[in-house]
Known about the structure:
By secondary structure, the chain is an alpha/beta fold. Helices cover 23% and strands 43% of the residues.
Amino acid sequence: MDGITETAGVKLRAVLERVEAPAQKCVRLVDDVGGQTLKLAEPRPDDEVFEYGGRTVFVIDPQMAEKHVGQKLDWQHGQFCFV
């Protein structure tokens, strides 16, 4: 995975602030029934970590990152997507 766009960073940070997530929490991409989903989580030692505005906003484990090689997480048309 090649990172997150500024638009995604702004949205992720806003979501974390809206739900009043503690500083150690961020958003994680996980496999779920029927696809992938985003969940509130804490970073793990082997995660790829992405920050925005001085805060960790997004993490992805190595296996999931392999599925998104060459892509960035973005926010378009009211939803997160990979570009």
